[in-house]
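Much of our argument rests on the idea that a fold can be written as discrete symbols. In the encoding step, the backbone of a single protein was reduced to a row of integers, each denoting a local shape. This step matters because it turns folding into a mapping between discrete strings. For completeness, the protein is quoted in full, as a sequence line and a line of structure tokens:
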Amino acid sequence: MEKKLIIIFTIQLSLLLFSKFGEADEIVGKVSRIKDGDSLYIWNSEIRLLDIDAFEYSQNCTTNNREYACGEESTNALKELVLNKEVTCSGTTVDRYERLLATCFIGEKNINESMVASGWAINYNNGVVYIAAQKSAELGKRGVWAGQFIDPSIYRKQNSQDARAEQKFSFSKGGDSQCIIKGNINSSGEKIYHTPWGSKNYNRTKVSVKEGERWFCSEAEALAAGWRAPF
């Protein structure tokens, strides 16, 4: 009991130092909860896995022309890896949500790298910290690399409260109120889809069905059909 209290006190003190001074420290403890594929809790303190970006819990991806809950799969992958296991996390900063940004290990195993290697997370912001692990996952078609997916950072931007509140877009004649993504083919023959929340050319883009263009009900559907995002 005394040992347990010492560990709890050490963890709380460590997090206090991070918040106040941003000094490097190491936290050791059992993972009590998993929030998503790149966030875990030691006791009641949230830790964000540094240099990786996992798929949001509500996010869907596509494989074999079918959508699946890749966000849930990512969360489950981290659960299987670390839940109720003792980990060691090291970091130097906290983010604006007061989460410690850290690299975590189970023994010698780098958890951050393992999530990227499994294909259930990618390098954060197109970084190169785990580029070899990501390339391995891509070549091995592991996790999301078995199909198509939207970068988690783009998904968050498109599904933010501001994006959902933005309703100042127009529908071309014949558009379906449930299928509002425009699949356009440009003069070079490129298939590009346009969303009302992510494309500055959405309002002026027309859909010509007779020219092979079409409407999509989701970005995953557009990606699976061979269209790409306009960036």
The radius of gyration is 21 Å. Helices lie at 2-21, 70-82, 111-117, 131-139, 152-158, 161-165, 219-224. The chain has two domains: 2-156, 168-224. The first strand starts at residue 25 and ends at 36.
